[in-house]
Amino acid sequence: MATGDLSLYLRGRLNQAVARLQNRRSAIPPPTPLPTNKLLHECPSPFTYVRWLEGRSNIDRQLLVGHYLEAKKYPLVRAPYHSFEGEGENFVADVGGRAPLLILIAHHDAVPGSPGANDNASGIGILFHLLRRLWEEPPRHLRVRFLFTGDEEIGYLGSREYVKMARLPEIIGVLSLELCGLGDSLAVWDVLPEFARAPILNVLSSAWEQLGYRRDETYHLVERIPVFGSDHRAFAAKGIPAFGLTLLPSAEADRLREFIFKPLRPSLFLPKKRPVPFHTYHTVNDRSEHLDPDAMLKVCDALLALIATLDRRT
């Protein structure tokens, strides 16, 4: 076992233990999720998908994501994995041309005791919404891969196993969606020095500025952050330009900067003292009632603009 994998394994186990401890005595009843048939016969919003997944067990979430993709007859590829760290299933659906490839990721698991609305049913909902849009009007010169991973909360296990097994052709970039359910400012994070000049970041900036976003005001390119991470890091470790994507409230910018870059303080374990959106992160309060449906649609619009710009420039 590689040293890096061992570190992530131990970190994942610690992550699970902390969540169990933090959520062990909640008096809050779990949310009641929406039934699946409501989604199969409608064109749901991203927020509706959140209400469908929140509060379900990780096994149920995994089964439902796979069932939904099959029922909608998307070009689904199942990618199960088995290791001593755990086992689960990733789901892959491609739309568009042959190359280059843009990979969009959202993990379908949640930590113990949390309904998992913002982390990370919001990411699933946004990508399901995008998948439907692109399935109806696919890009001609770009392939978009939707990757729904398992066990992100256990040291990015699903994405690490996927990178080991998958053929990785000409990839222009990877974005992993995390905490995209409320806010007005987009943050692309883990911009490592070797990726700072990656073409996807130039295209992203151009696409978002055409939508009215402003660099360092309503969208941000952020260096590698400590403690927190996501599935994109499995790709970055292979030298592929890969980043996290999070939606944040501009009003909390100063508190967020302090919390994210100096997280090892009591507020990490005291949710009420954390800035939004981390006030519900990994807790029993990570519920759809705290999310903003319109904000999730804005993330969809930002990603569609990125895809359209990449398609034109390829």
> What's the helix-strand series?
HHHHEEEHEHEEHEHEHH
Whole-angstrom Rg? 18 Å
Computed structural class? alpha/beta
Task: Enumerate the strands of the largest sheet in spatial order, edge to edge or round the barrel.
Answer: 1-2-4-3-5-8-6-7
Would you tell me the overall average pLDDT?
93
Number of strands: 8
Shape descriptor reads globular
CATH topology: Aminopeptidase
Unreliable residue runs: none
Oligomer: single chain
Number of DSSP helical runs = 10
Q: Percent of residues in beta strands? A: 15-25%
N-end to C-end Cα span: 39 Å
The largest pleated sheet is described as: 8 strands, mixed
Looking at CATH, the homologous superfamily is Zn peptidases
Considering DSSP H and I runs of 4 or more, what fraction of the residues is helical? 25-40%
CATH class: Alpha Beta
* Count of spatially separate domains: 1
CATH architecture descriptor = 3-Layer(aba) Sandwich
Short synopsis of the structure:
By secondary structure, the protein is an alpha/beta fold. Helix content is 39%, strand content 18%. Strands 1-2-4-3-5-8-6-7 form an eight-stranded mixed β-sheet, with helices on both faces.
Description:
This protein is an alpha/beta fold and 314 residues long. The chain has a single domain (3-20, 42-313), classed as Zn peptidases (Aminopeptidase). The protein is built from 10 helices and 8 strands. It has helices at residues 3-23, 36-40, 46-53, 58-71, 117-136, 157-165, 199-210, 232-236, 253-261, 293-313; strands at residues 76-83, 86-96, 101-107, 143-149, 171-177, 185-189, 219-221, 242-248.
